[in-house]
Amino acid sequence: MLIQMSFDDLVKQAPMTIEHYLRSVVVSVDAVFGKNYSRSNPAFIASLIHTCAMDFNTSSTGKIIEHVGGHITDALREGHVPARTLVAALPELLASLGKSSETTGGTD
Length: 108
Hints:
With 108 residues, the chain is mainly alpha-helical. It is built from four helices and no strands. It has one domain.
């Protein structure tokens, strides 16, 4: 599956996602802890919204890795990419991943 949205569209869509998380979290929290509990505990609501976003990020990343891994596996099985070429590229790839996680602040 390919993301069809531009970066501008994704930025514009982000507040809609936050609103969806906010409304869902408020309904869920008030159902569990009682009416208006969410109003009295905004930090709790914020932490749950952050957890929703992290869960989506983790799930999305997992799907992407699974998709890419499938293509790599298919390419290796079909002989399009020699395994030694992939193995030779791993140190550089892993080093670049380490650098990108340092510049983005880790796994958050």
